[in-house]
Design a protein that fits this description.
about 240 residues; alpha+beta; five-stranded antiparallel sheet; 5 strands; about 55% helix
């Protein structure tokens, strides 16, 4: 299918639309993804409200006009599912969205939220300036969310596994552990002459997340055996030394 097939064209259960975002339930553009609700106004304008924001009701005044329709993120998703159903069974559609949600939430919870929080703490405490892009760690964070993180999320949205993993989450993880964290330590060392602030940030924002446990404690024998078992089931006994 083309872009228009899914995002604009009519299908047996959906009419055509010129709003290419109408059927989108997640925003994949910012550092941290959020689900979006759509508000339509009487004057022809419309705007998005992220989940957790204040959503006006039909008939309310908003931005100088009257609200005539509200589409929740679930309703927007259902519109896309209606288009999907022209070609796919419900199990395929639900499986796709389960995978999509899992990837976005993995990116959000394991990487984007803790890194964004640490970047905020660095600026607040004066470890980096308030100016954007004048320190290497800011460029690393930019690459993680704007390039690799976006590729991962968009790949999951549009069935592009290579973009999701090898050009996406693989690079997100690699650059988190082997660029961002070393640069965090370097920033702390430069200002304080030690890495205590960096250690405190990792303890506060990374350590509570189960997916980072290996970084702090290494892999247990049980975890290694589990990895080996899965690897050998796929590739044969002795494939993983």
């Amino acid at each position: 299918p083309t872009c228009a097939t899914c995002h604009m064209s009519a299908s047996p259960r959906e009419g055509k639309t010129h709003n290419v975002g109408e059927r989108i339930s997640w925003t994949l553009r910012p550092p941290i993804s959020k689900k979006l609700n759509l508000v339509r106004l009487e004057n022809g304008e419309e705007f998005d409200v992220p989940d957790g924001g204040e959503i006006p009701k039909v008939g309310d005044e908003a931005k100088g006009s009257k609200v005539i329709e509200v589409l929740t993120s679930d309703q927007r998703r259902q519109k896309m599912k209606n288009v999907c159903s022209a070609c796919h069974t419900s199990s395929v559609i639900e499986g796709h969205y389960n995978q999509f949600d899992d990837v976005v939430e993995l990116y959000n919870e394991k990487f984007a939220k803790p890194i964004a929080a640490i970047m905020g703490e660095l600026k607040k405490a004066g470890y980096i300036t308030k100016e954007p892009f004048d320190e290497e760690i800011e460029w690393t964070w930019w690459e993680i969310w704007h390039h690799e993180g976006r590729r991962a999320r968009h790949g999951a949205a549009m069935n592009g596994p290579d973009y999701t993993w090898w050009h996406g989450l693989y690079e997100v993880a690699k650059h988190t552990y082997f660029k961002f964290i070393p640069e965090l330590r370097e920033v702390a060392q430069h200002k304080d002459g030690n890495e205590k602030f960096a250690d405190a940030m990792l303890e506060k924002y990374f350590k509570p997340i189960e997916g980072h446990d290996w970084y702090f404690n290494g892999l247990s024998k049980d975890a290694i055996d589990k990895v080996r078992k899965g690897f050998e089931e796929r590739y044969g006994k002795g494939a993983m030394k």
